[in-house]
Design a protein that fits this description.
The complex is a heterodimer of chains A (141) and B (114). By secondary structure, chain A is of the alpha+beta class. Helix content of chain A is 33%, strand content 30%. Chain A has a single domain (2-138), classed as Heat Shock Protein 90 (2-Layer Sandwich), CATH 3.30.565.10. Chain A has helices at residues 15-27, 34-55, 90-93, 110-117, and strands at residues 2-10, 64-72, 75-82, 120-126, 130-138. A 5-stranded antiparallel beta sheet of chain A has the order 1-2-3-5-4, with helices on one face. In chain A, β4 (120-126) and β5 (130-138) form a beta hairpin. The longest helix of chain A has 22 residues, at 34-55. Chain B has one domain (2-106): Transcription Regulator spoIIAA (2-Layer Sandwich). Chain B has 4 helices and 5 strands. Chain B has a 5-stranded mixed beta sheet with strand order 1-2-3-4-5. In chain B, α1 packs parallel to α2 (56-71). The chains are: A alpha+beta (141), B alpha/beta (114). Chains A and B meet through α1, α2 and α4 of A and α1, α2 and α3 of B.
Chain lengths: 141, 114
Amino acid sequence: MQNRTEINFLALSQNQAFARVCAAAFATQLNPSLAELTEIKTAVSEAVTNAIIHGYEGYTDEQWIFMGCEIDGNEIIIEISDKGRGIEDIAAAREPLFTSKPDEERSGMGFTVMEEFMDKVDVHSTPNKGTTIEMRKKITT
Amino acid sequence: MDIQFVERNGNLVVKIRGEIDHHTAQNIKYAVEKEFSASNAKNIVFDFAHVGFMDSSGIGMVIGRYKELAKIGGRVFAINIGTDVGRIFEISGLKRIIPCFAGLDEIENNIANA
């Protein structure tokens, strides 16, 4: 089976729940277990949070996040993009407990959670152009 | 998202109903800080029985309270951790610093016997 959907939404924290529920609803076509759905929702929530609080940090005008979800066979591929600041050192950002905001109660575990819950996480980023996170997960149950 | 507070034997129990993400974690933080400073409690107990979702923003929020209370000799506990929240606790290593119990009675027994 092949299928695809695309959604654009404003980079507002109240849209985190919207985005993860959309991704989970799309993924239900693959008959995932409840645990797998939770994993997808959590990974999406982490990626969208990063776009809002890091990607668009300091931006004041209207900012958009793009989410594309694709089904290819028994695999779901989720792409989340912003046009924000970008990440200078991707390897450092992916380290557990790394946070650029130590005073703001950020755990620095966002990428660790994405990697734990999805099969593959790719990060493409260009400073001042934006960041794209592509996550893949095979639904095996 | 809705929060209820119960104070019992020096523990402020924070019963969260809803989902914990970046959006709601900030509101929980402010509500807990306000309630704790107005109470006579020494410790904070997060009750996750009705938390349907938690991402790493919840980890940051719990660690934040752990650090605040450590300064004044208080502790942070967790009760009623289900499978989903439990996995976030394990991946993040939060389980190593926040003792998890079945319920408030177990915490009180534990403190009494310590």
